[in-house]
Each structure stands twice: as structure tokens, then as C-alpha cells.
Fold this protein.
Amino acid sequence: MISSYGLFCLMKNNKLFVLALVVLFIVQLACREQIKQTDVNAGTVQNDSAASCSQETIMDPNQAKPMALMMRQMVINADSMKQRILRNETLDSLQFRFIKFYLVEPTDPNVLEPNFFEKSRLHQAAYLEMFKHPKEQVKYYNLMIASCVSCHQDYCSGPLKRINKLPIKL
Ligand code: HEC
């Protein structure tokens, strides 16, 4: 025989049991939702990696690969060099050290092929050449930017719009 107190306890336990079931159900739903969300995110990341090259920026900057981050710094540096040249200042190779972007992980590993490394080499050469001609900075700066364009025509046309604003118009 169950005393009225016992019955009360049982009910209370049942309530707890039901509550626990409800909580479990919600947690499970939440997990499924999470998984879906992750799938969606994975999709976005993939789209964005293509987008990093077809568009200018990646939606979530935290997802950017080291090469993309270096490229962003390269644009900032190029713009800063342009401003200096326009102010008739001599570029300092120590201030604008060459960034070895070709050694780090890109968003799309397929770019790491011989032609990419050849274009990297040509770009590095054009970049270093720039500092050797303080009297012809405009010319050699523009050649350096042309080597950015040359690689971007093959691998990553999205940022071209932005890169094409970098040359100094004579
Ligand atoms: C040898 C090839 C090559 C050269 C040279 C090169 N780039 Fe890039 N650039 C790439 C590749 C590949 C990516 C995509 C990187 C990634 O998503 O990881 C990229 C990405 C970029 C991006 C987009 C970064 C972002 O936000 O995702 C910009 C802007 C950019 N480059 C500017 C430049 C500028 C400016 C120069 C010259 C100073 C330059 N690039 C030289 C290959 C090159």
C-alpha cells in the first residue's frame, strides 16, 4: 500500500521524470539544430573560400587563411607605399619588408602549383627591384603592382578591382 505521502513522492518523482524527459528532448533538438547549423557554416566557409577570390572580402574574417591575411596586409602596404611615393618620399625596404605569402596556407590549396610559385617569384623580384631605383619609384612601384595583377588574373580575380586602384597614374 502506498501512503498518501508516498503517492505524493511518486507524483513528484514522476513530474521530475517528465521534466527530465522534456529537458532531454530539448537538448537533443538543440543538438540536431547545432549540427544543421554546423553544416550550414561549413557550406558558407566553402562558398566564402571561393568568394575570397571572386569577391573582395570574406564574410567572417576569423575564417581567413594565413595567405588571405597576408594579402590584406599587402594591399595596406601597397597603398601606404603609393601615398609615400606621391609625397616624394623614398621607400624604405626595412619598413616594407617582403611578405612571404607563398609559404603559408591558402584558402584553396589547389593554387599551390608551379605557375603560382613562378608568379610569386616574379612578384618578389619586382618587389625587391622597387627599392633599387629610388629615382624611378613610380615606374618600379607600378611594375610591382602589375605583378600582383598578373598572378590575380590566373588565380584570384575578385580582388582585381581593388588592386587596379593601386597603380600610380602618370
Ligand atoms: C603569385 C600569386 C599572387 C600574387 C603575386 C599576389 N596575390 Fe593576392 N592573392 C593570391 C591568392 C592565391 C589569393 C587568395 C588567398 C587566400 O584566400 O588564401 C590572394 C588574395 C588576395 C586578396 C584578397 C584577400 C582576402 O581578403 O581574402 C587581396 C586583396 C590580394 N590578394 C591583393 C594582392 C596584392 C595587392 C598583391 C601585390 C602586392 C598580390 N595580391 C599579389 C595570389 C597572389
